[in-house]
Specification:
Number of helices: 3
CATH topology of one domain: Arc Repressor Mutant
Distance between the termini: 43 Å
Order of helices and strands: HHH
Number of strands: 0
CATH class of one domain: Mainly Alpha
Length: about 80
Amino acid sequence: MKAKDLDRRFDAGEDVTESLDLAKAKRPGHEQKRVNVDFPLWMVESLDREAKRLGIPRQALIKILVARHLEKTST
């Protein structure tokens, strides 16, 4: 299907998801890059306690905390 046909169908309110290869879809600005960070043991233990309390992995907690801080300081 040509892009103009897809645009026309989308603009008409049609469901065009069957025409998309969602396995290859990417969100610009959300690419991932692995980084290594060393934390003192007391901090890792504290992160683990909070992650357990929330029922999420440590990595998810770290991402949440960093994102909150960056959102707060970016304004």
